[in-house]
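User: Could you go from structure to sequence for me? I need the amino acid at each position, not a summary. Structure tokens:
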């Protein structure tokens, strides 16, 4: 049966209309009116499934941006509950306070001890306000540094889950050193002597994402995005017109396919047809498999080799053979 609470994106309107008709027919068949609509329901389901497949086979960068921001995509706490056992949260930056946009701590990933952290956007109004829509303040990035320093001390690999429109740009955050905190967190990623595996689950926006994603191995979900600025922000700067966001998205090369071709990311995890929000369990399972494979590649390497590989990875970005 179709989900009455499913949120459809603008470009999915034809699919929504078909699913609505299916629901109407299902309700009709359930009211014991004696009307046999099974054949019609089957035909409509086939048509809806094909339309969904065709639509997602040709998403442009702007539509991928919309999918990456879908409110029902699995968020960090979903990955945490499915992939990490015996999680012990670490709170506070030992300087100002605890930022709830970034959650992190220690736990076991498929039996392997790790430090783990990620951006949490929240699923409803209350949780979104609590987590500030995944936009971290300086305390969040200083907490991230604290977690990475602990990982270094105990020789534990680090897993990060990135999903943020960017760091919070408020006055208080700037007063408390937002740029410096992001830079310190990025530096901690780059100088970490243990493996750092990062997964971009939705939006990878600006320095707020880089601060957790300057990794040994960087993975993106198929319909996630990663960029130095949002398409809206880019359009506002270049054309003073945020309505040109689609043009900006096309020009910025923000999709996983583009970034893999440039060598900026290492791996793409395919999403279920229709996006991660249509089958969160399958998405999280595949993402976990990719992170496990990545960890295995570094399991026998010493600190110097881990650092050397990360250094070579970033030096190779943007280089030409010519």
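Assistant: Here is the amino acid at each position, in order:
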């Amino acid at each position: 049966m179709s989900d009455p609470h499913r949120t459809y994106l603008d470009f999915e309107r034809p699919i929504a209309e078909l699913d609505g008709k299916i629901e109407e027919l299902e309700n009709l068949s359930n009211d014991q009116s004696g009307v046999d609509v099974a054949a019609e329901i089957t035909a409509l389901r086939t048509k809806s499934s094909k339309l969904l497949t065709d639509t997602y086979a040709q998403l442009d960068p702007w539509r991928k941006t919309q999918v990456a921001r879908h409110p029902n995509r699995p968020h960090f706490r979903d990955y945490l509950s499915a992939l990490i056992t015996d999680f012990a949260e670490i709170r506070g930056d030992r300087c100002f306070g605890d930022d709830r946009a970034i959650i992190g701590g220690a736990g076991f990933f498929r039996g392997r001890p790790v430090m783990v952290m990620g951006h949490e956007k929240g699923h409803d109004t209350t949780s979104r306000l609590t987590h500030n829509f995944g936009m971290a303040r300086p305390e969040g990035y200083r907490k991230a540094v604290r977690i990475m320093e602990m990982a270094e001390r105990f020789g534990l690999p680090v897993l990060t889950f990135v999903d943020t429109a960017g760091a919070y740009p408020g006055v208080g955050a700037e007063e408390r050193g937002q740029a410096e905190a992001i830079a310190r967190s990025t530096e901690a990623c780059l100088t970490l002597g243990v493996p750092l595996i990062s997964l971009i689950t939705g939006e990878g926006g600006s320095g707020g994402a880089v601060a957790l994603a300057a990794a040994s191995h960087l993975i993106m979900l198929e319909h996630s995005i990663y960029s130095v600025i949002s398409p809206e922000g880019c359009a506002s700067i270049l054309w003073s017109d945020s309505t040109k966001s689609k043009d900006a998205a096309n020009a910025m090369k923000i999709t996983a396919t583009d970034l893999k071709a440039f060598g900026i990311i290492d791996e793409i995890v395919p999403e279920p047809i229709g996006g991660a929000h249509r089958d969160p369990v399958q998405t999280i399972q595949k993402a976990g498999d990719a992170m496990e494979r990545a960890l295995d590649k570094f399991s026998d390497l010493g600190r110097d080799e881990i650092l050397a590989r990360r250094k070579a990875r970033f030096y190779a970005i943007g280089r030409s053979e010519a």
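One structural detail worth keeping in mind: The mean pLDDT is 92.
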